[in-house]
UniProtKB/TrEMBL annotation:
It comes from Propioniciclava flava. SUPFAM superfamilies: Ribulose-phoshate binding barrel. It comes from the Bacteria. This is Indole-3-glycerol phosphate synthase. Its EC number is 4.1.1.48. Keywords: Amino-acid biosynthesis, Aromatic amino acid biosynthesis, Decarboxylase, Lyase, Tryptophan biosynthesis. GO terms for molecular function: indole-3-glycerol-phosphate synthase activity; phosphoribosylanthranilate isomerase activity.
Length: 266
């Protein structure tokens, strides 16, 4: 069993506990009273490089990354630096996250919020919307075509923008066939945890130009961000480099400026 399969087993166990506490009907009642999510395709595809800045405490590949006692404060720094969206890892066992982090970030910033988790059921999509997220991640490698299509349709019907994550040429094909508007190339292989930022360079050309392209994972320096921006990234999703930086506001602003310049020079 690869790392991704292992993570999903734990996610399903934790999910069963939450479902026993809050039923689907209760979530649907909450959602019915909520304002519509922000549409994030426009901001992420706007001219210049957009940054999706992640709240990430730990990871299977690197272990503990940063104490983040106040996710809202970190999110405010990201937004002040110009981040278009904040990604909140809500998986508990491997990433030290929680849905309450997302709620705290929602209350603190007015930019888009991505729920970064391993979404494999309809319940999680409703839960994402009820928590106040604007975007949800669907990982192609974790889903059959039928599940991917059903979850995508549900999420879009709830007003969520879906970030469809791929890592191989075959997964790009599945994402494009699905009609995904926002496609993220994860430079990290979720079965082996190997990272290679050339993966974005290889797959970017396979994504039709009318889709918004996100380069995800392993972007640790300005040079890395410049590289993917020159290869066609409209946006980058960055965790480790930002949570380990003593000045996340400045780090986000620097990535935006460098990436935007690299897009123009390509
Ligand atoms: O980060 C991991 O080790 C990881 C392992 C298995 C599944 C997912 C994983 N990360 C989730 C993410 O997608 C990243 O947190 C995100 O792309 C940011 O990556 P980074 O900038 O490398 O922290």
């Amino acid at each position: 069993m690869g790392v991704l399969d292992d993570i999903v087993v734990g996610v399903r166990e934790d999910l069963a506990e939450r479902q026993a506490q809050v039923g689907l009907t209760e979530l649907q009642t909450i959602v019915a009273t909520m304002p519509a999510p922000r549409d994030m395709l426009g901001p992420l595809g706007a001219p210049g490089l957009s940054v999706i800045a992640e709240v990430k405490r730990s990871s299977p590949s690197k272990g503990a990354l940063a104490d983040i006692p106040d996710p809202a404060a970190l999110a405010r720094a990201y937004a002040a630096g110009g981040a278009s969206a904040v990604s909140v890892l809500t998986e508990r066992r491997r990433f030290g996250g929680d849905l309450s982090d997302l709620a705290a970030v929602r209350a603190a910033v007015d930019v888009g919020i991505l729920r970064k988790d391993f979404v494999v059921t309809d319940y999680q999509v409703w839960e994402t919307r009820a928590a106040g997220a604007d975007l949800v991640l669907l990982i192609v490698a974790a889903l059959s075509d039928a599940d991917l299509a059903r979850l995508y349709a549900l999420a879009t019907s709830l007003g969520l923008t879906v970030l469809v994550e791929v890592h191989t040429a075959e997964e790009v094909r599945r994402a494009v066939d699905l009609g995904a508007r926002l496609i993220g190339v994860n430079n990290r292989n979720l079965h082996t945890l190997e990272v290679d930022i050339a993966q974005f360079e290889r797959l970017s050309a396979l994504i039709p130009p009318d889709r918004v392209r996100v380069a995800e994972s392993g972007l640790l320096s300005v040079a890395d961000v410049e590289r993917v921006a020159a290869a066609g990234a409209d946006a980058v999703l960055v965790g480790e480099a930002l949570v380990k930086d003593g000045d996340p506001r400045r780090a986000v602003a620097q990535f935006i400026a460098a990436g935007t310049a690299a897009q123009k020079g390509k």
